[in-house]
Amino acid sequence: MTVTNANREPIIRVSDSGPDRSLPTSVSTSDTIVEVGSTGFTTIEPLVMVTRNGTTSFYPQCSSAKLEDIVSAVNETGDVTAAEPDATVDHDPETSQLPVPEGIGLEPGVRDVTGACGWRRPTSPADHKAAGGFVEPDPEAVFDLGDQLRGRGWGDLCHDSSLTETWEAVRAGDGEKTIVVNAQGPDADKLLLGSAPFEVLDGAVALAHAVGGDQVVVYTSTENRHTIETVREAVSAYPDLSLPVDIATGPAEHRAAEPTMALEAIEGNHRLEARIGPPGPESAGLHGQPTLVHTPRTLAHLSVAFRHGEPRNTRMVTVRGDVEAPATVEVPETGTLKTAVDAVKLTGEFKAASVGGQFGGITDDLDIGVDPAALSEANLGTEGVVHLLADERCVVKFVGQRTRYAAEENCGRCVPCREGTTQLADLLRDVYDGTYEPSKMRELTTVMETSSICAFGVEAGRPARTAVAEFEAEFEAHADGRCPAGSCLETLEV
Amino acid sequence: MSSEHHDTADAPPLTEKIAPGTASDPSTGSDAPATVTVDGQEVSVTAGSTLIDAIEAVDTDEYVPALCHYGREGIGPRSECRTCMVDTDAYGVVPACSFPAEDGLRVETDASEASQARDVNFDLVLSNHNLRCTTCGKNGRCELQDGAIEQEIEEPRYGVLDDRDEYEPLDDSSSFIQIDRNKCILCNRCVEACNDVQVEGVLRVEGSGNDTRIGFQSDVETMEESTCVSCGHCATVCPTGSLVEKGIEDATTIPLPGFTQKNSIGKSHENTGKTKGPMTPKKRQQETTEPQMDGGNDLVASADAAATEDNSPTDNWDDGESDWP
Ligand code: SF4
Ligand code: SF4
Ligand code: SF4
Ligand code: FES
């Protein structure tokens, strides 16, 4: 059964990323229910969609009882709108991308690289094929497209930098070459592997062919059970797979996403620390052999680019923090942080955002573009995670917690990060005792940035550094014994 | 480095199981002989060299401490202290000890960013060091002390480790080697000496973040309980007073009435009296009953234990409401 051709009979899609996946996939006598992946907008899940002849109706936050109702109403009348949907949209009957209705909150962003998410059955080769997938571009085409792309996320060996130079090194190298799909990173990567694994695998397989790779290893956290299961199914369903695709897991630790620590984990080291370089993994990677490490985002962008003949200039951004439910949204590079933030409901008045993952930069300005150049210009991170802080949050406390996290979670190898994060956390704690030394903090974060071995230490000082620049008054208030947000009161009263 | 263990006739089963806890670094030396310019002076170095080899060959404009650099016996580069940062025309600020000496590269030691990094990182090393040279067995022959004098450090910006609650107990349990982790700079020389040179597989790096420490692969707490054969290699390579051969741990101590290296900490692991010869009880037991090294099972068990500890059940990307400050 291919979804796209099943228009004469109504087809019912269930999109649910929740841990329990409560909705049954078979109700009463109906067998037309299919499970699709998450749309990225968790707040409306479980989401049920009923499609027939180019019309789809939407039932957000759907219960099992409601699903029973929908099934019987639709079976009786053949009408997709029979069970009072929250929204309905008309679309190309053959569409392979989620058609976006108005009114249930799915509007923000675009659905291009994430087109499959919430629409196609994640592990159905037929659905992927109908969407134009499983193309086998020739190596030169892969390099041409790679030239126009940048690596996405800190787990990518080519984070924010050109891909093809690194690919050339692997192509020119000797030995057993591996493409590592690094899915230890943020929600966007989990979304792609869980909802659109073929997009990621297509990119990895084509890249392997282009550089003469021998194998693909999908690497994720032991805790991402759903991802592991989905990838396993997708690999065994992948038509005519021409090289081995293995799955490897590492501990559920932030640092385990760092590309060289990913290699250590895949090699089975019981303790993860970063490797030094140069040379980097492109010449001495997995077991000392030439290796590429890319995130699912990078690879999905590559594979979608094959179909269009050019890359899609979009960024995947997850918005979380003080929100009702996190959302992962694909934003055109011409868009701003505001576009992404529109995808969620804040639980208070907006105060600030930490932009760029665990060690993002702090800002109160959402009119900043989401393209890497604009973000870097604004001292923000490009990791694709925006953590929102509502007005009752204290920025000093937030960066203190992030800094302490860095002190506890770094691998322990290099001094600027191992000792630097500890000293930085101490300097932030000293503010509560009245000692606020912004220049000392700036000096320390600068050295952490210029001399740490890996991106963990390079970025670990960013929350403190940017918060001191953007929220100076809050730090001064704390040094005077006041917490403007009122959340550090107990500490200050002592 | 640590990944390459050559099989020797008497030790193949051991090498298989050696788990030093460190990364399998690539070799970072240059592919070919190279000529680089250091502070305006041309220096030629052999294949396999890093920038530190060129720097050591000339008088540099500024002092480059390079605390963790050893450069002998195939030990290192660990490249962890980052007190060897220098500026290069092509790559910006890089660690001299592990950066390949590339032909034509121009190196400056006095560029402000590099200089600042060496300075701050040296102070960061001291911030976690129990700086009590007067009661230390390495006083006068300590690489850290030498570096601090040369660097003209008077008042380290982050202070020194002087909070007694934070001190790790001194391990005085072995009759041959004393460990004072409060003086360890985590240069990893001892671990490499033990695993890669002696192929004994006793020492390892364990933990992460500020809990990173030198420990034992057999998952025990003290030197006496470990599989140590008392070869002393680790103490020979240790740059500080962290690993010192017994008998000389007080050798260079300035005789302050009532002060010794041991009571400088206030707590220690003592010898249990079970140790008689150069081999620890654990090692003797292995040698007699289990020539295959029983550390094998221990290693697996300890790896599991480490993994469980590491696996915090919380969402790693959101530390949310943890107490602060
Ligand atoms: S920067 Fe931090 S995480 Fe990276 S090697 Fe250094 S200590 Fe480890
Ligand atoms: S190891 Fe001993 S001699 Fe060296 S700096 Fe530390 S206390 Fe001083
Ligand atoms: S004990 Fe000595 S040799 Fe070993 S890591 Fe510490 S300072 Fe280096
Ligand atoms: S000597 Fe280069 S990092 Fe320590």
From TrEMBL, chain B:
Where is this chain compositionally biased, Acidic residues type? 316-325
Region labeled Disordered — which residues?
Answer: 1-35, 256-325
Keyword Iron-sulfur (UniProt): yes
InterPro entries linked to this entry: 2Fe-2S_ferredoxin-like_sf (IPR036010), 2Fe-2S_ferredoxin-type (IPR001041), 4Fe4S_Fe-S-bd (IPR017896), 4Fe4S_Fe_S_CS (IPR017900), NADH_UbQ_OxRdtase_Gsu_4Fe4S-bd (IPR019574), PSI_iron-sulfur_center (IPR050157)
* SMART domains, alphabetized: NADH-G_4Fe-4S_3
- Recorded source organism is Haloplanus ruber
Protein name according to UniProt: 2Fe-2S iron-sulfur cluster-binding protein
Alphabetized GO MF terms: 4 iron, 4 sulfur cluster binding; metal ion binding; oxidoreductase activity
Sequence ranges assigned to domain 2Fe-2S ferredoxin-type in this UniProt record? 32-113
Superkingdom to which the source organism belongs: Archaea
Extract the Pfam families matched here.
Fer2_4, Fer4_7, NADH-G_4Fe-4S_3
Q: Which UniProt keywords apply?
A: 4Fe-4S, Iron, Iron-sulfur, Metal-binding, Repeat
Q: Does the keyword Iron-sulfur apply?
A: yes
Xref: PANTHER family = HYDROGENASE SUBUNIT, PHOTOSYSTEM I IRON-SULFUR CENTER-RELATED
Which residues does the UniProt record annotate as the domain 4Fe-4S His(Cys)3-ligated-type?
113-152
Tell me the ranges covered by the 4Fe-4S ferredoxin-type domain, including all copies. 175-194, 219-248
